[in-house]
Amino acid sequence: MKPALARTLRSFQNNILAGIITIGPLFVTYLIFSFLLSELAKAGMPVIQLLAAIFPENWLHQPLMQLVLSIVLTLVMLYVVGRVTALVIGKQAFSVFEALLERLPFVAKVYTSVRQLLDSMMAKKESSQRVVLVDFPLPGRRPLGS
Asked: What is the maximum alpha-carbon separation in the chain?
């Protein structure tokens, strides 16, 4: 293969790879948010459709308005559940609920794994850690430490 053609192909390949690296995280973020929003909309949609059947206002029958209202309704419900859970009685009830979930064979593995993942994602990073050089195992030898 001619050197000019090989350089052009390599440049083309590098640019495609750079584009994938740039767009990839954005695309994954889009997929996650679209999935979450569609699940939030699905959760609240039955209540919104019931309200649309009860109240004959025209704006309640528009699909976009139903979608937005169902997402807002689901977020409000999640807030209420979180608020109740944050209270002392809610914490106790949640521990009983978790204990029940941990007794179910397959559910326990999935639930605890997702719970650990979310806990690790929500944990604050410790800002006091730093990289240092330590004299170990012999004086003059300095491996990295943190």
From this structure: 83
Backbone φ, ψ for residue 82 (5° rounding): -65, -40
Q: Tens digits of per-residue pLDDT, 19-42? A: 888 888 888 889 998 999 999 999
The owner of tokens 């609240």 is 44
Q: Which of 121, 116, 72, 122 is nearest to 98 (CA)?
A: 116
Give backbone dihedrals phi and psi of 62, rounded to 5 degrees, phi first.
-75, 130
By CB atoms closer than 10 A (0-12, 13-18, 19+), residue 144 is: exposed
By C-alpha distance, which of 45, 53, 36 is closest to 70? 45
**Residue bearing tokens 């410790």:** 126
pLDDT tens digits, residue range 83-115?
A: 887 777 777 888 888 888 888 888 788 888 888
Return the SS3 of 46. helix
Least Cα distance to 81 among 91, 71, 69, 72 occurs for 91
